[in-house]
Amino acid sequence: MQPIIECVPNFSEGIDLRVIGQITAEIETVEGVRLLNVDPGKATNRTVVTLVGNPDAVIEAAFLAIRKAGELIDMSKHKGEHPRMGATDVCPLIPIAGITMEQTAAYAVKLAERVGKELHIPVYLYESAQPDKNRNNLSVIRAGEYEGFFKKIKDPLWKPDFGPADMDAKRGATVIGARDFLVAYNVNLNTTSTRRANAVAFDVREAGRVKTENGKKVLDAEGKPVTIPGTLKSVKAIGWFIEEYGIAQISMNLTNIAVTPLHIAFDEVCKKADARGLRVTGSELVGLVPLKCLTDAGKYFLAKQKRSLGVSEKELVKIAIKSMGLDELSPFKPEERVIEYLLKPAGNDPLVNMTLRAFADETASESPAPGGGSVSAYAGALGISLATMVANLSSHKKGWDDRWEEFSVWAEKGQYYKQELIRLVDEDTRAFNKIMAAFGLPKSSDAEKAARQAAIQEATKTAIEVPFRVMEMACGSMEVIKAMVEKGNPNSLSDAGVGALCARSAVLGAFMNVRINTQDYSDKKYAEDMVNRGREIAAKAIALEQEIIKYIDEKFGI
Question: pTM of this prediction?
Fold first, then answer.
C-alpha cells in the first residue's frame, strides 16, 4: 500500500473567507494531495483544514499553506475563543495507511526544519515528533499563548526547535508534529456560564483538576499540587462560551478514540452535566471523523435501547447523529464529514449505485458486462438481506424481548455478508474489464507480447478469485438464513426461504464463472484446485438449500 498521511493545519482566521480561500488554494496547487475539508469557526476565529496524500506532497502543500497564512494573517490583531500562538497555530501529521508513526514524525521534523529555515518562523515540535517529553504536549507548549510568547520564547527552556528565538509579531510561532488521529469534539450545554462548563470539563478530562481545601491548593510531599483525575482517559477538555450560538460548550480533544470513543465521551459529559444541574442539548464535530466513530456510536445507542445492531451502515450513522445531536447547530452531512466517504473515488461503484430498473436495463443491453458474476453477487446480497430482515423483525417481535441480543448478533452477521456481496457486484465487472484491457495491450515486439500475456494471466486470475469469493460469501450467508428459518419470526418463514433460493443460485452462478475463467488460465494446477474447492462449496450450498426447503415444507404442511 502506498503511504498516505493526513495533515490538519489550524489557521488563526475563521471569519474572512477570502483569506481562507487563498490559503487553501495553495494546497490545491500540489499534485498528489486532496483537500478534504475546510471548517471555519467565527467564534474561535480559526479554520481547521484537512488534506491527505503521499507524504512528500502533503508536506509541500503544508509548507505553502503556512507561508501564505503568514503573509495574510496578522496575529497582533487576532481575537478568538480558542488558544492560539501563531497564524498557523498547529500543524499535525497523522499516519493513515502504509506508513508508521516513526516515519510520519520524520516528515514532521522535515517540514518544521524547512519552515524555520526558509520562512524564519519559530517552530516547536510536539507529540511523536518531539524527543523531549517535557515539551511534547501541545497545551504546555502553547501556554501563555500569543501574548505571552514574546517573553516565553526568550527562556532557554523554551528555545524553538527550529527558526529564530524571537517572537514574530505578525506571524507568531507554529507547532508542528505527528500524532495519532484526534477527534475535535464540542458538547453543547443549556447554559451561558463558562465557569460551569469548565467545571464539567474538569470532571471528565484526564488531567482533572487541582485538589483544594478551604480554597487553597493541596500540595504533595514535594510541594507540587495534588490533582483529582477526570473520568475519561485520553481526553483533553475546557469549557468556553460561544457568542455565535449563545451557549457554553465543553470543547474536547479525543486523543485516542480506541480508549475513549466519541459516544462514551458524549454520555459521560451528559452524566456529569446532569449532576451539576445542566443539560446537554447536542454536540458538534470539528473537522473530519473516521466512519467507525459513527457506526460504533450508532450500535452503542441501539444497544442501550435493546434494539438490533444489525442495521445498515447508513442507519447506524443516522442514529449516531440524532443520538448525539450532531446536527443541532448546523446540518451534519456524512458525505462531507466522514473520511472514508471523502476518500472514495466518485463513480467507484457504478452498478450498485444504479436504480433497480437501470441495473436491469444495463444487464439486458448488448454490453457483455455486467454479466453472470455480478448478477450472482447481487442475488446473494438480496438473499442475505431477506434473512437479515427476518433477524431484525425477530429482535423486535412482541413477547421476544429477552431474545433481542440473540437476533441482533444474527443480523450483524447478515449485514457483513450483505456488504461484501454488494462490493463484489462491481468487483466482478471490474475484473472482466481488466481482462478486456489486457487483451487490448500492444503486441508488436516480443517484449510487448510477454507483457501482454502476463497482464492477461493476472487479470484472469482476478476473474477467477472474485466469483470464488462470491461463492464463499453466499454459502456462508446460508448459516444465517438457516437460523432464521428455524428460529426466526414464523410470520417471515417464506422470506427466509426465498433468501435460501437466492443464496444457492448465487453460489452456483458464481461457480459457472469460476469454471469458465479457469479454462483460460495457464497455471492448470491452480485452476484445478479452485474448481475442486468450488465443487465442495456448491455441494454444501445445495445440501443446505434442500435442508431449508424441507423444513419449510414441513412447517407449511401442504
Answer: 0.80
CATH number for position 256: 3.30.70.670
551: exposed, middle or buried (C-beta count within 10 Å: 0-12, 13-18, 19+)? middle
Residue 349 lies in a domain: no
Mean pLDDT of 473-497: 96
Q: Are strands 4-7 and 88-97 parallel, antiparallel or unpaired?
A: antiparallel
520 catalytic per annotation: no
Nearest to 157 by CA among 180, 128, 134, 182: 134
**263 noted as active-site residue:** no
Which residues fall within 8 angstroms of residue 121, CB to CB, at 6 or more apart? Answer: 66, 70, 86, 115, 163, 168, 171, 172, 173, 174
Any idea of the CA torsion for 485, 489, 493, 497, to the nearest 10 degrees?
-40
Domain hosting 72: range is 4-178
Tell me the average pLDDT of the chain. 94
7-60 pLDDT tens trace: 999 999 999 999 999 999 999 999 989 998 899 988 889 999 999 989 999 999
Looking at the structure, tell me whether residues 310 and 326 fall in a common domain.
yes
- Cell readout for 371 is 454479466
Given the residues 82, 263, 267, 426, select the one marked as catalytic. Answer: 82
Per DSSP, what are the bridge partners of residue 124?
175
- Nine-digit cell string for 350: 457504478
First to last CA, the chain: 57
| Overall domain count for the chain | 3
pLDDT higher than threshold 70 for residue 356? yes
- Whether 420 and 525 map to the same domain: the answer is yes
% of the chain beyond a pLDDT of 70: 99
Catalytic residue among 168, 426, 428, 495: 428
At residue 304, does pLDDT exceed 90?
yes
